[in-house]
Amino acid sequence: MPDYLTGFGNHCSSEAVPGALPQGRNSPQRPAFGLYAEQLSGTAFTAPRAQNLRSWLYRLRPSGGHGSYAPYDGAPGFQVDAEGEPLAPNRFRWSPLAMDDVDADLIDGLTRMASNRDPGAMDGVTVHIYRANRDMARRAFFNADAEMLFVPQQGRLRLLTELGILDLSPGEIGLVPRGVRFRAELPDGSARGYVGENHGTHFRLPDLGPIGSNGLANPRDFLTPCAWFEDRDEPFDLIQKFRGRLWVARLDHSPLDVVAWHGNLAPWKYDLARFNTIGTVSFDHPDPSIFTVVTAPSDTPGVANCDFVIFPPRWMVAEDTFRPPWFHRNVMSECMGLIHGAYDAKADGFAPGALSIHNLMSSHGPDVASWTAATEASLAPHKIEGTMAFMFESRWPFIPAAQALSLPELQPDYDACWQGFPKARLPI
Ligand SMILES: O=C(O)Cc1cc(O)ccc1O
Ligand SMILES: [Fe+2]
């Protein structure tokens, strides 16, 4: 079992071998045991202190010991291709992608579903679904384009990163920072889930405003792995994502050889069951921003490049209120998934593993069946249980990948959700 340090954005220190971490300086002339000191930065050197992220890694070899990168064609589904334009401003929904014909590791088993912005432009978000049944044995990956937020939906996912091991189960999320090398194992033999690539500034905890100093995701529930390394002198492929494409270089050893590290740029995981959910105790359905777990701000205050929002179990007590999500058209764009259970705005067609996209100004909200049930329900206190939906919400519209639009799981009749509402009757 991996060990974890607690807290969000803390300056951590960890060593897998006692004495490996230098004391009192970052880069001594001769680090202990002949280790190599290397800085990994997550922000510009001159970023304000409150946002500045970097870590110091002490490793068996410097990370640069690889040859030149050649194109990697093994994971065509993960890469960015020319998109089909013009994109119809439709609502999109995919049923869970089938697992039967899967024969891939995490990287080869990624299917890019939607992107916004140019992945090399340090802005926007890309959403993928992964389906895998093989461990990455002698392959490691890192992403120059984005930090990666993993949302397991089926099966556990073990991310063995340069800075330690994240063991993720469905219901937990895990973040691997830009540039951090990792490989993935599947303790249950196969796994499916979602990945959000955040190309912009880092996910952080949202401000709480009038909520006060506690609530939503509490910092101490974020877990950062302790230092871990593998000493393997054998051929390794190092795959890198750079400007939307994949590249591979050869190493003669595992690049996961960081014996000790310190700093505040590090992987983390979070159990969504720890989320302190806040809602109305009077009337009206509040905006879903109260369910924000982490947010990646843009340059415009309050307008996120990407919010990660969940719809967790919670008590519904609002009086004289239509309790599920209302009908709406938003200026922000929404990409939703479901980890388990049912979502209260969609009675049908949105199964665990599914994905939907509601771009800006597209009319959406409850389907007819959910609307009918909620309109007729008695408004006794009621607990929504056994569910966990989530949403990547972005200021940029999501452009479905051409490959996603030709998947058999794309639902041809999604618009039918909003057909058949009875017309309102005015008094004559
Ligand atoms: O569209 C959705 O289902 C997500 C959503 C939920 C909610 O409670 C309010 C607005 C919103 O976009
Ligand atoms: Fe919405």
UniProtKB/TrEMBL annotation:
Residues 4-272 form the Homogentisate 1,2-dioxygenase N-terminal domain. CDD domains: cupin_HGO_N (cd07000). The keyword Amino-acid biosynthesis does not apply. Residues 274-423 form the Homogentisate 1,2-dioxygenase C-terminal domain. GO terms for cellular component: cytoplasm. It catalyses: homogentisate + O2 = 4-maleylacetoacetate + H(+). Its cofactor is Fe cation. It comes from the Bacteria. Its EC number is 1.13.11.5. Pathway: Amino-acid degradation; L-phenylalanine degradation; acetoacetate and fumarate from L-phenylalanine: step 4/6. Fe cation binds at residues 328, 334, 364, 382. Keywords: Dioxygenase, Iron, Metal-binding, Oxidoreductase, Phenylalanine catabolism, Tyrosine catabolism. The active site is at 285 (proton acceptor). Homogentisate binds at residues 343, 364. One of its GO terms (biological process) is L-tyrosine catabolic process. Gene3D superfamilies: Jelly Rolls. One of its GO terms (molecular function) is homogentisate 1,2-dioxygenase activity. Hexamer; dimer of trimers. Belongs to the homogentisate dioxygenase family. Involved in the catabolism of homogentisate (2,5-dihydroxyphenylacetate or 2,5-OH-PhAc), a central intermediate in the degradation of phenylalanine and tyrosine. Catalyzes the oxidative ring cleavage of the aromatic ring of homogentisate to yield maleylacetoacetate. This is Homogentisate 1,2-dioxygenase.
